[in-house]
Design goal:
Elements: E1 6-13, H1 17-28, E2 33-36, H2 51-56, E3 66-68, E4 73-74, E5 104-106, E6 109-111, H3 118-131, E7 134-135, H4 160-171, E8 176-178, E9 181-182, H5 210-220, E10 224-227, E11 231-237, E12 244-251, E13 254-265, H6 269-278, E14 303-310, E15 324-326, E16 341-344, H7 350-353, H8 362-370, E17 372-379, E18 388-391, E19 397-400, H9 406-422, E20 427-432, E21 468-470, H10 485-498
Parallel strand pairs: 1-2, 1-13, 2-10, 3-19, 13-21
Antiparallel strand pairs: 3-4, 5-6, 7-9, 8-15, 11-12, 12-13, 14-17, 14-20, 15-16, 16-17, 18-19
Amino acid sequence: MSSPDLYADVVIVGSGMGGGTTAYALAKKGVSVLVLERGDRLPNEKENWGPKEIFVDKRYKSKEVWVDGRGKDFAPGVHFYVGGNTKLYGAALPRMREKDFEELKHLEGVSAAWPFTYWDIEPFYVEAEKMYKVHSNSGEDPTEPGRSEPFPYPALPHEPYIAALADRLRKSGVTPHSNSMGIDFGDDGKCIRCNTCDGFVCRVGAKSDAEINAINPALLTGKVKLQTLAEVIRIELTDDGRSVDCLVVKGPSGEYKVKGKKFVLSCGAVLTAALLLRSKSAKAPNGVANSSDLVGRNFMMHINTHIAAFDYKRKNDVTFQKTLSFADWYFDGGKGYPLGIVQLIGKVQGIMMKSYATKVPLAILNYVADRSVEFLVMTEDLASRENRVVIDDRNRIHLVRKPVGMSTHKKLMRKTLRVLRKSGYQAIFKQPFDISMNAHQCGTAVAGSDPKRSVVDQYCKTHDVDNLYLIDSSFFPSSGAVNPALTIAAQALRVVAKSDLSHV
């Protein structure tokens, strides 16, 4: 191995929302941390704000190739940079609801209870909202969970088009509310309220991502080191198989080993599971931390559809569009079953539509974009053992998924379209998410108290391996129907505060 071996008290694999937040929380406790990031710093360049470069040319998308359940190759929506997928996320940072942590009956099954309650994590939601500068207003959303403190920052104001849309939605029978957005916005903030936020890279550092709000402050403490271009390819266990001995890392100069007292995997639900499965050995014949045979199983991603609501009579002149949602049917769509949430996304430009509507002339797409408003319709995906990550004999990732909740999603779509037509939109264009978008992936190393029915405990420590933690969305027992990023951050803060991870 050609590179020098590295060491830290806690070694973290991945610098996204889970890894970055964990590193920052450990640094505040004075713990020596090494963060290993497969990618490098994402450059600040004019292409950061280029819709064609990002949405059509896929400039920042990884070169990974995975295989779906039909044996077809696809390019997953993952990004290998310091900050991980948060570098290009939409900065929506809502809390999950109290009932999301409980067993909940759905039309097509049951959403599992978590091994801790909403109120166990609530103080860390407060801390995460401050860390990631979350803006919103309490009291607007009829489904919002209880809070021990108000939001640290007020909601981003609606632009006139969105304010008028909110009025039309109210008259159509739903209750619009402000989005919870992680943005450095205000009199002293960096945000210039541009139209290149959701899905773009922020050139001015105003979007609350894991690099800006976690990794960089962690490095300033002097307790954290960052090793980029460091792809962890294998976990090696001690002779008794009860602890991680080292990580084998591939870098530009070859392979080397990284040792530490404790280890954290924060690679994202698919890649965390893949690393555990790829590390099988005589000590762990089914993969590391996998005596339960649950590593890689129960893969979930929200059942999502992008919609563009078109009104030929009204031009949409909005710049920053993503300030409003409605969740009236989150827990009850009228028959006692949860349906999900409808959330505005960033304003879509015609060239961005070209990534999906490839055969439609750009002039037509521009006309539609000038007169449309765009939403994400989001429904919970229920867990299934057969939805899973598998590593084949060629070391490729297979992602097998049949969504559990399509009937629910169709009901939410019908209700949403009815409201939007009543609000004055003549046509609705739809883009269902396929597996390549793998949005909000979770559930591949589920948390629980029983080692036979879970991979990690309530503090993300693996049942099988004493010094290994999985701090990303892989631990989620259920997916809820809101963006998972704030819950990942809150759980990272909770693990550092409440578990023995920082005791080194």
